[in-house]
Amino acid sequence: MVNELIIVRYGEIGVKSPKVRGRFERKLIENIKTVIKGTVELKEGRIFIYPQNLPKAVESLKKIVGIVSYSPASVTRTNHESIKELIQSYIGELVEDGIFSGEDSFAIRCRRVGNHDFSSQEMAAYCGSVVYGITKSKVDLTHPDFELFVEIRGDKTYIYHQKIRGLGGLPIGTQGRVICLISSGIDSPVAAFLMMKRGCSVTLLNFNTHPYTSGSNDKIMKIYQKLKEYSVGAKLNLYQADYGEFLSKCIDKGPERMTCVLCKNGMYQIAEKLAIREKCLAIVDGSSLGQVASQTLPNIRATRYSTSMPIISPLIGMDKVEIEDLAKKLGTYEISILPDSDCSAVPRYPETNAELPLVLEALETIDAEEEFKKVLKSFQLIR
Predict the structure, then answer these.
(1) Is 149 one of the annotated binding-site residues?
(2) Chosen CATH of 177-381 out of 3.30.450.40, 3.30.70.1280, 3.40.50.620, 3.30.460.10
(3) What is the pLDDT of residues 54-68, one digit of tens each?
(4) Fold of 5-165
(5) Does 182 belong to an annotated binding site?
(6) Is 206 annotated as a binding residue?
(7) Is residue 237 within 8 Å of 383, Cβ to Cβ?
(8) Rounded to whole angstroms, what are the CA distances from 134 to 57, 78, 128, 142?
(9) 291 assigned binding-site residue
(10) What is the pLDDT of residues 176-206, one digit of tens each?
(11) Are strands 69-77 and 5-9 parallel, antiparallel or unpaired?
């Protein structure tokens, strides 16, 4: 294919104030440059990439947050003869590759930026006549089988036929850092990704609850590696804490039904301490309202009461099917469903309507603050 560059489009960045927009644009370009070698230019609301390896760059852009869509394209000078020659070459290759043929209807989508001695409609008609001259295809402006885009910007004209959908969102690194509670389940990796999509750098925190689970890091490491693919432009740290001893105290000294509530309350409080150390602005988890016992409204209140830092749950209004669909698109679903041991600390009848005074009393009984100090000493930076 004659493509030699990629045109990148962004969305909500464009509606920010000039100062904020400029900062976000610079960050997006910086993130792109971390994975794509070549020249990157910003012109009039578009990012133009001239990569050293175009196929590799096209794949890399699929996982860069902040990009709405992008198109491999070819460029020529803005005059009728040059545009005609490029279209003839471009369409000729598409026909040769079986992407477009005389059996397909087509439409020309033309837009202009700048002053020219022709209108967009006039140029579209001209380009259409060039395509017809090659393929004898019929024009269908409403439901065409094939679209050719002609984008005229000043003295340069760009030709392309694909608009590849990007992840959208805001560039990673524009919204500060958050700490995300991560497990080997389906939900929390999706929550971490959604915060990346809103421009946050993410630090992951995993609680190893051995001997109540296997204690294996295999699934966590695979999930970490998958999430790392999307954290373009920001370092993705993974911490792990030994949590089995604290969980034992919850079981031995707390009300049996309240084990999960005490466990989650402790996770938030410990995450807050690490967040302060890591200069994170919020805690993130994969809670979905009512999905499990610890995620009823009374229990959410009881588990978060002791934490002053904001706790964000991007999945809170989603059902399991919606979350699984996102996990499949993300690529973490197949990892999360790998065989693993369930937590044996979960009581037979877990509390679903925790009373806050009783939770606070139980935390005092198990001397939670002292136990938290032990957990903090166990922190390991895995990656």
Answers:
(1) no
(2) 3.40.50.620
(3) 999 999 999 999 999
(4) VC0802-like (3.30.2130)
(5) yes
(6) yes
(7) yes
(8) 31, 21, 10, 21
(9) no
(10) 999 999 999 999 999 999 999 999 999 999 9
(11) antiparallel
